[in-house]
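User: Predict Glycerol-3-phosphate dehydrogenase [NAD(P)+]'s structure from this.
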Amino acid sequence: MTDRKPAVAVLGAGSWGTALASLIARNGHPTTLWGRNAEQIEAIDQRHENPRYLPGIPLPQNLRATTDLAHALDGVGLILVVVPSHAFAETLELLAPLRPAGVGVSWATKGFEPGSGRFLHEVAGALVGEDVPLAVVTGPSFAKEVASGLPTAITVQSDDADFAQTVADVLHGPTFRAYTGTDMRGAELGGAMKNVLAVATGAADGMELGLNARTGLITRGLNEMLRLNQAIGGRAETLMGLAGLGDLVLTCSGDLSRNRRLGLALGRGEKLEDAVRAIGQVVESVQTADEVMRLAERHGIELPIASNVRAVLHGEMTPAEGLARLMAREQKPEFE
Ligand SMILES: NC(=O)C1=CN([C@@H]2O[C@H](COP(=O)(O)OP(=O)(O)OC[C@H]3O[C@@H](n4cnc5c(N)ncnc54)[C@H](OP(=O)(O)O)[C@@H]3O)[C@@H](O)[C@H]2O)C=CC1
Ligand SMILES: O=C(CO)COP(=O)(O)O
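Assistant:
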């Protein structure tokens, strides 16, 4: 019997992958961060800093970093994927033949597979095998705050309750609470939709429409999340928790959010391409808005806020026109 903590490979060396790898290393797990940029990886491994994505935040000395995926996965007890949604399938394809037998796969990516609209647990199941334990890590968590050791609460959801607990145990620590549950669909829907809704509140704030407008959009946005969640078979309580309401409030109101900042820029009249370039990091809503609307249309669910965000992102209307359309909708009961 040994009480040695399992080694963990974190795949994706952007802001969130680096922050989670740092947390896990601080929790005492042998941790290796895999990324594709040799210069950044060397800085993380040798200088204990990610100058591109988390400048000025010291990383633990025991965190290793590599560009060699086979090396990162050698002997690990857990894999955590933290690449953007557009790179999720390609990363799963790379890891599938290198995954040590019996090792489960978790991810902290938010969004759907662009183009197909598949949920990420569907992509993962198809690429690594339906019998492999899978889990999603999600909730209100800005990378910069986690990397700085500020208090945070998230949730780990898996069909396999034991695996959810294993992943939560690796993450949980003095400043990081990891809850567990068994609703991957609801959790993934919440994490994806809040990014789209944050563009709406950002745009309203960029137009200086006030706090009533922001809060109205958050609350009616939650209603859109709940209605689509019911249609796809997620649990309502998941969306009323960290994976839904919690992340929605954080992303819609916190200026660290890249999706909110995109909305702010659009609301001030800036162009989409310029805003995304200035943010300089992944802005998941740009692709997720299309996939959310495709999903909603497939289920016959009307999502007025999300559909207006999608139209604004495609240049089909201005944020002012989008807001005017929302205000002009027919009067109706709050809950139907
Ligand atoms: N940042 C946050 O606070 C949080 C983020 N998330 C989610 O985590 C996911 C990752 O986001 P985040 O880390 O913030 O994004 P960042 O923009 O900070 O970093 C993206 C990282 O992904 C890498 N990458 C892009 N494409 C590939 C690829 N094909 N193969 C390997 N690596 C690739 C980039 O490498 P390169 O530099 O070489 O381009 C970069 O290291 C997103 O789904 C996001 O929604 C979830 C919760 C919190
Ligand atoms: O998912 C996040 C916080 O929970 C990060 O949000 P952004 O991607 O909008 O920065």
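The chain has a mean pLDDT of 97.
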